[in-house]
Amino acid sequence: MVKFLRKLFAIDGKLCSGASIDDLYLTYKEQCQVAQQNPDNGLLRYRGNPGTHDIPLLCRTLDEIRLLNTPGAPDVVDVVQYDKTCHSGRGDRSPPQASEKILNGLDVFLLEGWCLGFMPERGGTSFVDSNLTDISRHLEEFCSLYSRLDGMLVIEVDNLNCVYEWRAQPEREAINAGKPG
Description:
Elements: H1 2-11, E1 16-20, H2 28-37, H3 55-66, E2 76-79, E3 82-83, H4 86-89, E4 92-93, E5 100-103, E6 108-112, H5 131-146, H6 162-176
Parallel strand pairs: 1-6
Antiparallel strand pairs: 2-5, 3-4
């Protein structure tokens, strides 16, 4: 959807760029530490859920992008990229030279991610799965991110099974590019 929106903004003459929250996962080493610190929580064993993203880095990056069109601002902001094929599919950050360059003059920046907009549960909520307590606690970090966004667009699907196809698509693309999937 973000690719489609970027094309629409370009047709309208707007310079639009974007990123995925998936590019701002913790490094492989940091993810391994999270898994070791939470040995009984399968939701933190691998990347994907809140608690496996580098929210401070994402907030700094958004702050830099917001300043792009102001006097004295840098001409470019580097947005880290993530290679999900590293470490037998566990993933890791790509080298700095692979960063996406966000240029001064930007009109629109889109940030996409499946868990954006989720809020922590407060007030002694009892979860069906006790592992969700940790995930909810990590959602507290996301609140600092939300204050940096001008708006949110939620795409609602009729059938959640489409998620499996969406998840398989980048795996096929990686395999077709000669990378492990």
